[in-house]
Specification:
Strand order of the largest sheet: 1-2
Shape: elongated
Radius of gyration: 17 Å
CATH topology: Arc Repressor Mutant, subunit A
CATH class: Mainly Alpha
Number of strands: 2
CATH architecture: Orthogonal Bundle
Structural class: mainly alpha
CATH superfamily: Winged helix-like DNA-binding domain superfamily/Winged helix DNA-binding domain
Largest sheet: 2 strands, antiparallel
Helix content: 40-55%
Order of helices and strands: HHHEEHHH
Number of helices: 6
Amino acid sequence: MVAIRCEMKLSSKTKYGIKACHFLGLKYPDEVVPASMLESYVSVSGKYLEKIMRMLSGRGIVSASRGANGGYFLARPPKDITVGEIVRALEDDMEIIECVKEDGKCKCCPSSGVWKRLYKGINDLLDSMTLEQMIKGELQ
């Protein structure tokens, strides 16, 4: 018998990453936010924030500038960034189980269709929400 474990739990990276993007969106496009200000707003250590921002930067969501006036800023307008992009950047593409991968050849269970539909539904929902909508409070 093969034991299958499917657990979906978002990490704290996602919570803090969305909060950081929200704050950067409030400042877009006029301000570069110093790391210390972002750390304070998000309530996370500098090292952890740096890891999160590196992941978001790698997906083209945020950018950073160095120097005396350096800090973080959104790489694109908030209306062009979906909540789904942010979450997938921080949660390994939201692959809740192996068989949802594009090339996933599920041989482990007859329920792969369930997981693929769940994966699609979650991503479709997250992609329907923009950072701008979140900033405006339209997602309440």
